[in-house]
């Protein structure tokens, strides 16, 4: 086996282990045992499990970002772009199940980039520009595009996490449902959304103003 082949073998073995057990619960000993090599071989190629993890995450981030960026870069009607983006994520989950499980797990503290949240943030930034342009056409405030972009991308990502385990309904049906909610929600947006049924929040009494029992101020009047 060449050095390159050994390196790829270690990456494949580690990818499966990280997906099964997570970073913290996976040891260099397990990686070496699964690959049927000694621990020094793992250290020689990657310096430790942190090095292996970094390479794996980088590859997965590139794969998913490339798929989502490709869906957005093709242009076209905004609804079609939402459809392509939803399908791109579900396609990635379907073909790279281990990779997606690694991305959605908590990364080690030293891993500043490559986490699923940072990846979603990057995608949301791309979507933000599309929403801002669409908002202008609908006479909505384009300055609100960033928060709506986070909501939209987060909705798709969390649905993808659920579908990873459920695998029901079919991929096309999940994508259609996502687009139905996202697109029709965007189409019917109000210019100045307001809560209509939220109960008023009562002011908390200052510390020391209430009795130990009953929660009323010392003068007996209820807190407004």
Automatic annotation (TrEMBL):
Claim: Transcription is one of the keywords in the record: yes
Organism expressing this protein natively: Cellulomonas triticagri
Annotated region (Disordered), positions in chain: 194-224
GO MF assignments: DNA-binding transcription factor activity; transcription cis-regulatory region binding
Gene3D superfamilies named among the record's database cross-references: Tetracycline Repressor, domain 2
Keyword Transcription on entry: yes
Name assigned to this protein: TetR/AcrR family transcriptional regulator
PANTHER family in alphabetical order: HTH-TYPE TRANSCRIPTIONAL REGULATOR RUTR (PTHR30055), TRANSCRIPTIONAL REGULATORY PROTEIN (PROBABLY TETR-FAMILY)-RELATED (PTHR30055:SF227)
Organism placement in taxonomy: Bacteria, Bacillati, Actinomycetota, Actinomycetes, Micrococcales
Domain named HTH tetR-type: residues: 4-64
């Amino acid at each position: 086996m060449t050095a390159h082949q050994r390196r790829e073998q270690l990456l494949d073995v580690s990818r499966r282990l990280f997906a099964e057990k997570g970073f913290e619960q996976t040891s260099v000993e397990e990686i070496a045992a699964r690959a049927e090599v000694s621990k020094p071989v793992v250290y020689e190629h990657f310096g430790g499990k942190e090095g292996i993890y970094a390479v794996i995450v980088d590859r997965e981030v590139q794969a998913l970002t490339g798929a989502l960026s490709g869906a957005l870069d093709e242009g076209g009607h905004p609804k079609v772009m939402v459809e392509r983006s939803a399908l791109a994520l579900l396609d990635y989950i379907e073909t790279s199940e281990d990779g997606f499980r690694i991305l959605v797990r908590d990364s080690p503290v030293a891993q500043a980039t490559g986490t699923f949240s940072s990846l979603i943030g990057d995608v949301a930034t791309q979507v933000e520009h599309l929403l801002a342009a669409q908002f202008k056409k609908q006479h909505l405030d384009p300055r609100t595009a960033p928060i709506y972009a986070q909501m939209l991308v987060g909705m798709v990502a969390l649905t993808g996490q659920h579908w990873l385990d459920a695998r029901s309904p079919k991929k096309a049906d999940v994508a259609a449902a996502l687009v139905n909610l996202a697109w029709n929600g965007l189409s019917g947006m109000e210019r100045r959304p307001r809560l209509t049924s939220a109960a008023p929040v009562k002011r908390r009494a200052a510390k020391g103003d209430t009795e130990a029992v009953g929660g009323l101020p010392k003068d007996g009047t209820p807190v407004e």
